[in-house]
Amino acid sequence: MPPPTLGFVLPCLDEAPSLSALLTALSAKWPGSTIVVVDDGSTDGSPEIARSAGAVLVERGRRRGLASAIHDGIAACPADRIVVMDADGSHRPEDAGALITALDHVDLAVGSRWVRGGAAPGLDVKRTAWSRTSNALVRTVLDGSIADWTSGFWAIRGTAARRLTKRPPVATGWLGSLEIKWRARRAGLSIVELPVVFDARLHGASKLRLRDAAAAACDLVRVRFAADL
Ligand SMILES: Nc1nc2c(ncn2[C@@H]2O[C@H](COP(=O)(O)OP(=O)(O)O)[C@@H](O)[C@H]2O)c(=O)[nH]1
Ligand SMILES: [Mg+2]
Protein backbone atom coordinates (compact mmCIF):
# COMPACT_ATOMS: atom_id res chain seq x y z
CA MET A 1 0.00 0.00 0.00
CA PRO A 2 1.33 3.48 -0.82
CA PRO A 3 1.95 5.74 2.20
CA PRO A 4 -0.95 8.04 3.10
CA THR A 5 -0.97 11.39 1.32
CA LEU A 6 -0.68 14.51 3.41
CA GLY A 7 -2.24 17.96 3.12
CA PHE A 8 -2.28 21.21 5.06
CA VAL A 9 -5.10 23.75 5.26
CA LEU A 10 -4.06 27.28 6.21
CA PRO A 11 -6.80 29.90 6.69
CA CYS A 12 -5.18 33.24 5.88
CA LEU A 13 -5.99 36.89 6.30
CA ASP A 14 -3.06 39.25 5.74
CA GLU A 15 -0.34 36.95 7.03
CA ALA A 16 2.34 37.63 4.38
CA PRO A 17 5.37 37.98 6.70
CA SER A 18 4.74 34.62 8.40
CA LEU A 19 3.20 32.73 5.49
CA SER A 20 6.35 32.62 3.44
CA ALA A 21 8.46 31.01 6.19
CA LEU A 22 5.67 28.61 7.10
CA LEU A 23 5.21 27.39 3.50
CA THR A 24 8.97 26.89 3.18
CA ALA A 25 9.12 24.93 6.45
CA LEU A 26 6.16 22.70 5.59
CA SER A 27 7.39 21.90 2.08
CA ALA A 28 10.88 21.14 3.39
CA LYS A 29 9.63 18.83 6.11
CA TRP A 30 6.89 17.15 4.06
CA PRO A 31 7.86 17.28 0.39
CA GLY A 32 5.02 16.22 -1.87
CA SER A 33 2.31 17.34 0.54
CA THR A 34 -0.56 19.49 -0.70
CA ILE A 35 -0.74 22.90 0.96
CA VAL A 36 -4.03 24.77 0.65
CA VAL A 37 -4.15 28.46 1.55
CA VAL A 38 -7.68 29.82 1.99
CA ASP A 39 -7.38 33.56 1.55
CA ASP A 40 -10.14 36.06 2.21
CA GLY A 41 -9.03 39.09 0.25
CA SER A 42 -5.64 39.74 1.86
CA THR A 43 -4.11 42.95 0.54
CA ASP A 44 -0.58 42.34 1.79
CA GLY A 45 0.56 39.95 -0.94
CA SER A 46 -0.35 36.69 0.84
CA PRO A 47 -2.04 35.22 -2.28
CA GLU A 48 1.04 35.91 -4.42
CA ILE A 49 3.27 34.26 -1.81
CA ALA A 50 1.02 31.19 -1.72
CA ARG A 51 0.95 30.95 -5.49
CA SER A 52 4.68 31.32 -5.96
CA ALA A 53 5.34 28.69 -3.27
CA GLY A 54 3.23 26.21 -5.24
CA ALA A 55 0.36 26.11 -2.75
CA VAL A 56 -3.23 25.54 -3.85
CA LEU A 57 -4.88 28.93 -3.43
CA VAL A 58 -8.57 29.23 -2.59
CA GLU A 59 -9.44 32.89 -3.05
CA ARG A 60 -12.73 33.98 -1.51
CA GLY A 61 -12.38 37.71 -2.08
CA ARG A 62 -13.69 39.04 1.20
CA ARG A 63 -13.67 38.03 4.84
CA ARG A 64 -16.09 35.14 5.22
CA GLY A 65 -15.02 33.68 8.55
CA LEU A 66 -12.82 30.92 9.84
CA ALA A 67 -15.47 28.19 9.91
CA SER A 68 -16.25 28.29 6.21
CA ALA A 69 -12.55 28.82 5.42
CA ILE A 70 -11.82 25.47 7.05
CA HIS A 71 -14.65 23.76 5.14
CA ASP A 72 -13.52 25.25 1.82
CA GLY A 73 -9.91 24.32 2.55
CA ILE A 74 -10.81 20.72 3.27
CA ALA A 75 -12.87 20.57 0.06
CA ALA A 76 -9.76 21.65 -1.87
CA CYS A 77 -7.43 19.19 -0.13
CA PRO A 78 -7.80 15.62 -1.46
CA ALA A 79 -5.34 14.09 1.02
CA ASP A 80 -5.58 11.03 3.29
CA ARG A 81 -4.42 13.11 6.27
CA ILE A 82 -5.07 16.81 6.70
CA VAL A 83 -3.50 19.25 9.15
CA VAL A 84 -5.30 22.53 9.85
CA MET A 85 -3.16 25.30 11.33
CA ASP A 86 -2.84 29.08 11.52
CA ALA A 87 -0.87 30.88 8.84
CA ASP A 88 0.55 33.36 11.36
CA GLY A 89 3.48 31.30 12.64
CA SER A 90 2.01 30.59 16.06
CA HIS A 91 1.73 26.86 15.40
CA ARG A 92 5.05 25.04 15.11
CA PRO A 93 5.51 22.80 12.04
CA GLU A 94 7.51 20.37 14.20
CA ASP A 95 4.46 19.84 16.43
CA ALA A 96 2.45 18.72 13.40
CA GLY A 97 4.50 15.51 13.16
CA ALA A 98 3.00 13.95 16.30
CA LEU A 99 -0.53 14.97 15.25
CA ILE A 100 -0.04 13.33 11.85
CA THR A 101 1.40 10.14 13.36
CA ALA A 102 -1.50 9.92 15.81
CA LEU A 103 -3.81 9.45 12.82
CA ASP A 104 -2.43 5.89 12.57
CA HIS A 105 -4.73 5.19 15.52
CA VAL A 106 -7.40 7.91 15.73
CA ASP A 107 -9.61 9.98 13.42
CA LEU A 108 -8.80 13.38 14.93
CA ALA A 109 -5.72 14.61 16.80
CA VAL A 110 -6.14 17.95 18.56
CA GLY A 111 -3.06 20.09 19.22
CA SER A 112 -3.64 21.29 22.74
CA ARG A 113 -2.18 24.17 24.74
CA TRP A 114 -3.96 23.08 27.87
CA VAL A 115 -2.76 19.51 28.49
CA ARG A 116 0.46 18.47 30.21
CA GLY A 117 3.39 19.46 28.01
CA GLY A 118 1.39 22.06 26.11
CA ALA A 119 1.99 25.77 26.53
CA ALA A 120 1.04 29.15 25.19
CA PRO A 121 3.95 31.51 25.69
CA GLY A 122 2.57 33.48 22.77
CA LEU A 123 -0.54 34.55 24.65
CA ASP A 124 -0.40 37.60 26.88
CA VAL A 125 -2.23 37.62 30.22
CA LYS A 126 -5.47 38.86 28.64
CA ARG A 127 -5.48 36.28 25.83
CA THR A 128 -4.54 33.49 28.25
CA ALA A 129 -7.48 34.43 30.44
CA TRP A 130 -9.71 34.57 27.36
CA SER A 131 -8.56 31.15 26.14
CA ARG A 132 -8.90 29.54 29.58
CA THR A 133 -12.31 31.09 30.22
CA SER A 134 -13.71 30.33 26.80
CA ASN A 135 -12.52 26.72 26.99
CA ALA A 136 -14.05 26.33 30.46
CA LEU A 137 -17.35 27.70 29.14
CA VAL A 138 -17.21 25.39 26.13
CA ARG A 139 -16.50 22.38 28.34
CA THR A 140 -19.63 23.23 30.32
CA VAL A 141 -21.84 23.78 27.28
CA LEU A 142 -20.48 20.87 25.18
CA ASP A 143 -18.57 18.39 27.32
CA GLY A 144 -15.31 17.99 29.18
CA SER A 145 -13.74 15.48 26.82
CA ILE A 146 -11.42 18.03 25.22
CA ALA A 147 -9.32 20.56 27.16
CA ASP A 148 -8.59 22.86 24.21
CA TRP A 149 -11.81 22.96 22.24
CA THR A 150 -10.85 26.25 20.61
CA SER A 151 -7.44 25.13 19.31
CA GLY A 152 -6.93 25.92 15.64
CA PHE A 153 -4.17 23.31 15.27
CA TRP A 154 -5.39 19.78 14.57
CA ALA A 155 -5.00 16.84 12.20
CA ILE A 156 -7.77 14.69 10.81
CA ARG A 157 -8.14 11.69 8.53
CA GLY A 158 -9.29 12.83 5.10
CA THR A 159 -12.27 10.46 5.09
CA ALA A 160 -13.47 11.89 8.42
CA ALA A 161 -12.84 15.48 7.31
CA ARG A 162 -14.92 15.07 4.17
CA ARG A 163 -17.70 13.29 6.04
CA LEU A 164 -17.83 15.94 8.78
CA THR A 165 -17.92 18.86 6.34
CA LYS A 166 -20.73 17.60 4.10
CA ARG A 167 -23.09 20.13 5.67
CA PRO A 168 -22.08 23.80 5.79
CA PRO A 169 -20.83 25.11 9.16
CA VAL A 170 -23.28 26.43 11.70
CA ALA A 171 -20.57 28.63 13.24
CA THR A 172 -19.88 31.82 11.38
CA GLY A 173 -16.44 32.66 12.59
CA TRP A 174 -13.81 32.02 15.15
CA LEU A 175 -15.37 28.79 16.51
CA GLY A 176 -14.95 26.96 13.22
CA SER A 177 -12.33 24.65 14.66
CA LEU A 178 -14.52 23.86 17.63
CA GLU A 179 -17.46 22.88 15.44
CA ILE A 180 -15.46 20.21 13.61
CA LYS A 181 -14.36 18.71 16.93
CA TRP A 182 -17.96 18.67 18.17
CA ARG A 183 -19.12 17.05 14.94
CA ALA A 184 -16.44 14.40 15.43
CA ARG A 185 -17.62 13.80 19.01
CA ARG A 186 -21.24 13.49 17.95
CA ALA A 187 -20.30 11.08 15.19
CA GLY A 188 -18.45 8.91 17.72
CA LEU A 189 -15.08 9.32 16.02
CA SER A 190 -11.90 8.65 17.97
CA ILE A 191 -10.10 11.74 19.25
CA VAL A 192 -6.79 12.27 21.01
CA GLU A 193 -5.37 15.47 22.43
CA LEU A 194 -1.61 16.05 22.20
CA PRO A 195 0.45 18.91 23.62
CA VAL A 196 1.58 21.76 21.35
CA VAL A 197 3.29 25.06 21.99
CA PHE A 198 1.43 28.15 20.83
CA ASP A 199 4.00 30.83 20.01
CA ALA A 200 3.53 34.56 19.74
CA ARG A 201 2.72 35.81 16.28
CA LEU A 202 5.89 37.30 14.84
CA HIS A 203 3.95 39.84 12.80
CA GLY A 204 0.56 41.53 12.65
CA ALA A 205 -2.29 41.21 15.08
CA SER A 206 -4.82 38.54 15.90
CA LYS A 207 -7.85 38.66 13.63
CA LEU A 208 -10.01 38.01 16.68
CA ARG A 209 -12.06 41.13 17.39
CA LEU A 210 -14.34 41.93 20.31
CA ARG A 211 -17.40 41.47 18.13
CA ASP A 212 -16.06 38.05 17.12
CA ALA A 213 -16.12 37.09 20.80
CA ALA A 214 -19.80 38.06 21.00
CA ALA A 215 -20.54 36.17 17.77
CA ALA A 216 -18.64 33.16 19.16
CA ALA A 217 -20.95 33.00 22.19
CA CYS A 218 -23.99 32.85 19.87
CA ASP A 219 -22.20 30.30 17.67
CA LEU A 220 -21.48 28.09 20.67
CA VAL A 221 -25.16 27.85 21.55
CA ARG A 222 -26.16 27.28 17.91
CA VAL A 223 -23.54 24.56 17.47
CA ARG A 224 -24.57 22.85 20.72
CA PHE A 225 -28.26 22.75 19.89
CA ALA A 226 -28.09 22.23 16.12
CA ALA A 227 -30.30 19.30 15.17
CA ASP A 228 -28.12 18.36 12.19
CA LEU A 229 -24.43 19.03 11.80
N1 LIG B 1 -9.58 32.90 5.26
C1 LIG B 1 -9.77 33.42 6.50
N2 LIG B 1 -8.80 33.29 7.43
C2 LIG B 1 -9.01 33.84 8.64
C3 LIG B 1 -10.20 34.53 8.99
N3 LIG B 1 -10.11 34.94 10.31
C4 LIG B 1 -8.89 34.54 10.72
N4 LIG B 1 -8.22 33.88 9.73
C5 LIG B 1 -6.91 33.22 9.77
O1 LIG B 1 -7.08 32.14 10.67
C6 LIG B 1 -5.94 31.97 11.49
C7 LIG B 1 -6.38 32.18 12.97
O2 LIG B 1 -6.68 33.52 13.21
P1 LIG B 1 -5.91 34.36 14.31
O3 LIG B 1 -6.18 35.80 14.08
O4 LIG B 1 -4.49 33.94 14.31
O5 LIG B 1 -6.65 33.89 15.62
P2 LIG B 1 -5.97 33.58 17.02
O6 LIG B 1 -4.84 32.62 16.76
O7 LIG B 1 -7.09 32.99 17.83
O8 LIG B 1 -5.49 34.91 17.51
C8 LIG B 1 -4.90 32.97 11.00
O9 LIG B 1 -4.07 32.35 10.05
C9 LIG B 1 -5.76 34.06 10.32
O10 LIG B 1 -5.07 34.74 9.30
C10 LIG B 1 -11.22 34.64 8.00
O11 LIG B 1 -12.29 35.21 8.19
N5 LIG B 1 -10.96 34.06 6.78
MG1 LIG C 1 -3.28 32.66 15.41
CATH topological fold name: Spore Coat Polysaccharide Biosynthesis Protein SpsA, Chain A
**Class of secondary structure makeup:** alpha/beta
Number of domains: 1
* Order of helical and strand elements: EHEHEHEHEHEHHEH
Helix count? 8
Give the integer mean of the pLDDT values.
95
Poorly predicted ranges: none
Largest sheet entry: 7 strands, mixed
**Small ligands present:** guanosine-5'-diphosphate, magnesium ion
Q: How many strands appear in the DSSP assignment? A: 7
First CA to last CA: what distance? Answer: 33 Å
Top-tier CATH class: Alpha Beta
What radius of gyration results from the CA coordinates?
A: 16 Å
Biggest sheet: strand arrangement? 3-2-1-4-6-5-7
Q: What is the helix fraction of residues, given as a range?
A: 40-55%
Q: What does this 3D model show about the protein?
A:
The protein has 229 residues and is of the alpha/beta class. The chain is 40% helix and 15% strand. The protein contains eight helices and seven strands. It has a seven-stranded mixed sheet, with helices on both faces. Strand 1, helix 1 and strand 2 (34-39) form a beta-alpha-beta unit. Helix 1 (16-29) runs parallel beside helix 2 (46-52). The protein is globular. Magnesium ion is lined by residues 86, 88, 90.
Topology:
Layout: E1 6-12, H1 16-29, E2 34-39, H2 46-52, E3 56-59, H3 66-75, E4 81-84, H4 93-102, E5 108-112, H5 125-141, E6 154-157, H6 158-164, H7 176-186, E7 191-195, H8 210-225
Parallel strand pairs: 1-2, 1-4, 2-3, 5-7
Antiparallel strand pairs: 4-6, 5-6
Helix pairs in contact: 1-2
The structure holds guanosine-5'-diphosphate (GDP) and magnesium ion (MG).
